Amino acid sequence: MRRGAIFFALVALAAAVWYLTLSASPNVDTQKRGTATLADGAIVTVQVPASFSNQEEIGQRAYDAVCATCHGKNAQGRDGIAPPLVHRIYEPGHHGDMAFVLAAKNGVRAHHWKFGNMPAVENVSQADVLNIVAYVRALQRENGIN
């Protein structure tokens, strides 16, 4: 019961922070909170770093295999399917690395976007998710999200 209360409090805090930063979100159409559709259904334009560390390369391969179907190539999001992960909402100070681990393990109820709930991701280890996070963080840094 206590875990549920803590989780609810964290979600409420995250929603409040998101609401306060709503107007600061780049590349986002205000109609659906995240759907200025670009080529291939991408929601945001993502600059890719010139090179990646070994962990980021491993994360990129895992991301492409597990996450890209929904979250798009290079974490650009897919219109009508899933949000971009290269977005201020997912900056490290708002969604820490363990938030990604928990999202993959447990799924997430829709709270920032109108894409519906994210189901738990089958057959992905915590180590896999942390490699994916390293890749996403590299993309975020390249795009000014620290």
TrEMBL record:
One family name in Pfam for this protein: Cytochrom_C
Keywords: Heme, Iron, Metal-binding
Domain Cytochrome c: 54-140
SUPFAM superfamilies for the chain: Cytochrome c
One Gene Ontology MF term: heme binding
Protein name: Cytochrome c domain-containing protein
Organism in which the protein naturally occurs: Neptunicoccus cionae
Organism taxonomic ancestry: Bacteria, Pseudomonadati, Pseudomonadota, Alphaproteobacteria, Rhodobacterales
